[in-house]
Amino acid sequence: MSISSLVRLLISLFVAFVVLAQSDKPHCVVESSNGKSDDSPAIKAAFTKCASNGVIEFKAGVDYNVWTPITHKLNNVDIRVNGNLHLPNSIIKVLQITNGRKVTWFQFSGANVHWIGSSNEKYGWINSYGQQWYDANPPGKTGLEGRPHLFRWAVNQGTVRHFKSRKPMGWNVGISGDNNLITDAIIDAVSSTSAFPFNTDAFGVGARNVTIKNSYILNGDDALAIQNGAHDILFENNTIGYQTHGMSVGSLGGDPNSPADVSNIMFKNITVKGGLYAARFKSWKGGKGLVQNVTWSNIRLENVTFPIFVTQTYQNQALGQQSRPSGQAVRMKDFTWSNFSGTINTQNPGDGSCVKPCWYNDGLPTLRHTEAVILGCDSATSCQNFVLKNINLEPAGGNAHTTQICMNAKSDLNPRLGIGCSNGTFRAI
Ligand SMILES: *[C@@H]1O[C@H](CO)[C@@H](O)[C@H](O)[C@H]1NC(C)=O
Ligand SMILES: *[C@@H]1O[C@H](CO)[C@@H](O)[C@H](O)[C@H]1NC(C)=O
Ligand SMILES: *[C@@H]1O[C@H](CO)[C@@H](O)[C@H](O)[C@H]1NC(C)=O
Ligand SMILES: *[C@@H]1O[C@H](CO)[C@@H](O)[C@H](O)[C@H]1NC(C)=O
Ligand SMILES: *[C@@H]1O[C@H](CO)[C@@H](O)[C@H](O)[C@H]1NC(C)=O
Ligand SMILES: *[C@@H]1O[C@H](CO)[C@@H](O)[C@H](O)[C@H]1NC(C)=O
Ligand SMILES: *[C@@H]1O[C@H](CO)[C@@H](O)[C@H](O)[C@H]1NC(C)=O
What's residue 323's pLDDT? Predict the structure, then answer.
């Protein structure tokens, strides 16, 4: 036998083995009690049995009670969510589980894991029955204590397709694994009463190489919050709205001893339908570190209160402005806002997250709610190489003219700012 035919034989044996191995992939179909009891034990058993090179399947159209949290480390696994998952429809039951601790209901780690929700819009939902939590928030408070986070994805090299969250109790998805693609997600945190859905952030990302696209997000906090350690993040082709707090970088610099390190963040081709913020940077007073190369481009706005917003005096509304170091701030470098079009919410600005004193108006005595741009740089050196171009925003309902607030973005470090750094009428130069 020649060397080359031996090699061919070995290759064909290897291919045969791989195919066999694939057809042998353990396949775990999760059984349901059909609403009678907690299906978490069955779910855990399936995840344990198929944790490596497996397929875990929630059956099409079937309802599953996930009444206790699920945490698994997986390797090379497909999670097919063709049914609907239900968290406890009872505040008391959930509080018995969280019991004063920080709990995340679903937590996945490992590598090459794929969450594949149903492409049928009726299935693949996680129902969290959050409305009763929004309604139970005491007046003047910013959300009930003891709410769990919904979902943590600490997977490296993963995909999350058709993730659907209905009425989350609070925070939706935290991504802390590298190299992930999230596509076709739906987040529905729309409150059916006047109660505000506090902290219903859709995505928080503190990881490398993450893309979130083709998604639809209606909620009452950040659509995406870029967290410390985020690099190479793309947020593209999404629609966000309702009481959204926008496409946010931050908050950063909360721990004055831990420098922020964030770079290469791109938000592009986004529609923002209503909401408090569209493009936002937030860092705490007295933070440290560097955020570099951030772009918001091709953004369409409908009636948004603060279209472009930079603050370096971010605070936790529940705690108020606290004593913080002075003479230092998180630095921002190479920030671009390009091609914004649409309208500013001038007629009825703000949202139900305002608890007196209203956090989002704090520190802005000259606010008129006709601002297209608010740049609140901490000092003459904290903002560098900012670029605003092709910003076409008008107050909704006409009559008023567009204004701006700009502090400390001096022209020597920001030669292409595109506006004069002052308060008053918005004027591109
Ligand atoms: C980024 O993540 C995607 C999705 O997992 C992956 O296909 C791609 O190879 C990654 N890019 C790099 C440079 O690692
Ligand atoms: C954006 O979404 C549209 C459908 O709404 C799709 O045709 C297009 O390919 C998407 N673009 C990207 C970059 O995924
Ligand atoms: C931009 O997003 C919209 C949907 O929001 C989509 O229809 C359109 O195809 C996208 N454009 C590109 C260039 O991907
Ligand atoms: C800035 O970030 C973009 C991705 O958003 C990337 O393509 C580009 O290379 C980065 N620029 C630099 C100078 O690193
Ligand atoms: C500006 O944004 C609009 C709407 O998203 C888009 O149709 C247009 O192509 C963009 N222009 C440029 C120069 O990218
Ligand atoms: C803008 O949104 C506010 C609610 O925040 C609403 O009262 C107002 O009518 C809206 N304006 C337009 C023009 O849609
Ligand atoms: C510009 O507006 C900001 C925010 O309201 C205010 O703090 C600042 O004093 C104003 N600057 C001037 C020169 O009036």
Answer: 82
